[in-house]
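Backbone-to-sequence.
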C-alpha cells in the first residue's frame, strides 16, 4: 500500500513508523533529517522525480512516498463497544470520505462505517484524511440497512442528516448514537429515513440549499458529541 504527500507521510512517520516498509524521497532534505530517517528501522530510498510521478500515477507526492502495511478494516462486532458511530451511506467521493474520517477522528467519534462501496480505496482515504484513517477504526459493510439493524440491536439511537430534520441545536442526543450521512447528490434514501429514530439538520443563515457533506458532517459531529 502506497501513501504519498508530505502531511500523510509525516503523520505515518510520527505515529506509525512500524507500519512503514520503505520511504521514498524524491526531493532533497536536510542531512540531519535524512540521518534521523535512516535510524528508524525501515528502508529509505532516494528516487528521481519522474520515477516518483510514475509511482503515484501523477499525484501530488510533494517528494514523499511511503510503502506501508495494508490497512485492515475492523469487523462489525467492534461497533457494539462504541458510543458514537458515523455511517456513510453511498458516499463515494474519496475526498469527502477522507474529510469525514479526519473530522470524525478529531471530534472523538469511535468508528466510521463505510457502506455502498464493496472495496473502498484505502490509499486515497488515508491520504485525504491526512493520515487519520490509520488511527480511526473503519468498518466496511456494503448494505447500510444491515448496519442500521445491527446498531439498533446494540442499543444505538439512529440520527440521519436531512434538510427537513430538526435543527441540530435543539436536539438532546442519546449516549449511544449513530449519525448517518447520505450521498451528496441523493442524500439519504426514503428507506433509510424510515429506519431512523430522528433526522437532524443545520439551519442556514441565508437562503442557501446545502453544505458539502464533509462540512455538514463535521458540524453535526461537533454538535452531537
Amino acid at each position: 500500500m502506497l501513501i504519498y504527500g508530505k502531511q500523510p507521510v509525516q503523520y505515518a512517520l510520527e505515529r506509525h513508523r512500524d507500519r512503514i516498509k520503505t520511504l521514498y524521497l524524491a526531493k532533497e532534505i536536510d542531512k540531519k533529517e535524512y540521518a534521523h530517517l535512516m535510524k528508524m528501522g525501515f528502508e529509505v530510498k532516494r528516487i528521481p522525480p519522474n520515477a516518483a510521478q510514475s509511482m503515484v500515477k501523477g499525484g501530488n507526492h510533494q517528494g514523499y512516498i511511503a510503502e506501508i502495511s495494508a490497512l485492515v478494516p475492523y469487523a462489525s462486532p467492534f461497533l457494539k463497544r462504541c458510543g458514537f458511530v458515523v455511517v456513510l451511506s453511498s458516499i463515494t467521493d474519496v475526498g469527502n470520505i477522507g474529510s469525514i474520517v479526519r473530522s470524525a477522528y478529531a471530534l472523538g467519534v469511535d468508528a466510521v462505517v463505510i457502506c455502498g462501496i464493496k472495496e473502498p480505496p484505502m490509499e486515497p482515504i488515508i491520504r485525504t484524511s491526512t493520515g487519520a484513517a490509520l488511527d480511526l477504526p473503519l468498518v466496511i459493510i456494503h448494505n447500510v440497512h444491515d448496519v442500521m439493524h445491527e446498531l439498533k440491536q446494540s442499543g444505538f439511537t439512529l440520527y440521519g442528516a436531512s434538510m427537513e430534520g430538526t435543527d441540530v441545536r435543539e436536539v438532546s442526543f442519546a449516549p449511544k448514537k449513530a449519525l448517518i450521512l447520505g450521498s451528496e447528490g441523493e442524500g439519504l434514501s426514503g428507506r433509510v429515513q424510515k429506519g431512523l429514530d430522528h433526522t437532524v439538520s443545520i439551519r442556514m443563515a441565508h437562503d442557501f440549499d446545502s453544505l458539502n457533506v464533509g462540512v455538514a458532517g463535521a458540524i453535526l459531529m461537533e454538535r452531537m458529541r
